Amino acid sequence: MAGLGSRIVGAAKLGTIAPWLGLVAAVCIQVLAGNAYNFPLYSSRLKQTLGYNQVQLSNLGVANDIGENVGLLAGLLCNKIQPWGLLLIGAAASFVGYGVLWLVVSQTISSLPYWVVWFALCVATNSSTWFNTAILVTNMRNFPLSRGTLAGILKGYVGISAAVYTEIYIGMLDKNSVKLLFFLTVGLPAVCLLVMYFVRPCAPSMGEDTGEHGYFIFIQASSIVLAVYLLATAIIDDILSVDEGLISKIFVGLMFLLLLAPVGIPLKLAFHAIKHDHGDVRKSQPDNVEEPLLATENPSGQNSASDMEDKDGTQREGINLCVAHPSFDNDDDLDLEILLAEGEGAVRKKRRPRRGEDFNLRQALVKADFWLLFIVYFCGVGSGVTVLNNLAQIGLAEGFSDVTILLSLFSISNFIGRIGGGAVSEHFVRLKATPRTVWMTVTQMIMIAVHLLFASAITGSLYVGCALLGICYGVQFSVMVPTASELFGLKHFGMIYNFLTIGNPLGAFFFSGLLAAYIYDREAEKQSGMFHPEFLTSSDVNCVGASCFRLTFLIMAGVCAVGTLLSMILTFRIRPVYEMLYAGGSFRIPGTAGSTHQQK
Known about the structure:
Strand content: under 5%
Number of strands: 0
Radius of gyration: 26 Å
Helix content: 55-70%
């Protein structure tokens, strides 16, 4: 029994199981990392309890968006501390931030100053940046050969988290905002603390794993089944009003079972590893000798090739060791060693990195490709989030009494775009070394047509437009992530990724908060015949008709046209990089700056 237990522990730490176990743990965290999407569920209670006006509530929405998207500190620290440290900080931010909101809304403490509530909400939603950074950086490094597929899966689960929270809110929390805030205060950090140990950096296998593709397909399929299930339950809840009682709790229980489906992958690998090791022990060792869990090191401290092979001479497939990633090394010490070596004439001066190698943020900021990617992403997500943030007003202006179905349609389409964008870009980049940004070009061309469709206000256009826009919006996320890692490397990916994501709140601020709001208020002012400056700050502003957002949609179509043009230029510029990285249909890792060595 002791031998079996030691083999189970060894299987979890050594071999192909550890990175997959980490990915399953990452999925558990990511499905709750969209905590910022919950703001509409408790904002009304917050406004009522604290006596805020609409302007103050809108400013809290700004705090919600800032906290969700500004993660430069997490990106700076991701190479300094281990993933569990980042996740621990995220859990603490969720506990403190949502804890303050819960204490205020539940009236456990007296009302706090407005700026304290604003800052607490910012801290609470900022937890998602710590979760996202730890999860994306660690798993992109653990699975460098499947970056597009992986980004699609992880971003997809964040996209679907809104539906998961809604199901919990209806089925478990009885649509009680105070209970929801308590769940975010205690439940979210608890889940993170339970699984954060398994999110660990592993030295990835550089060979193609025949089973890896199948495992990713399984996770994608299970996530799609989950999304369809959540959409179906939302429709049933809306039509049959079964949001209370036993049926709603059954819905939540089935949802948790679907969420646990990816656990089958590490379980399968564990049983296979135990069976394989047990057979090797019985064949090659006496009964009283146990097989060592770790490979024996040679005198130089490196595992020899024979140590990584079975006795029949065949190399074991997909060996992954959970060790400290090289990115945790101290760059200052490395630079000092290079300077000393230069003084002795041992090496030439360290050259600047080339595209496909490891850049730090300062080096990336002077590259045209970086800013092209940033602006293309800014145009895509900025125009999409403008529609998303104003979807309720858009629907009401065009005669919809309830826009829940539009929100659900956009949410599920967004999820499909994230999952599909990662999978499709991964397929074509391996097949023909097609740059992933091609799909940003294609989707933003579609977004031009969608915004023009919205502007036309044709009957039924909102349904079709929300579905298409959701897909195209989701693709921007799942394509930007692997593209940034391929152009600028994984060593400082956390910082580069978090800088690029600033495009989302910037787009929301300029296009939605300023442009769309200004045009909407001006149109409402015309309709009401009121021309007083104080009217623009009234919470009773209402606009009816297609003219309320027509100009906004036309401008957004122009923004997407600019994004399309710049995306074409970026695709043309980086095609040689992808031809180098994916020569022969598989990913090749370039050497770091100062080295021309490449690994297949």
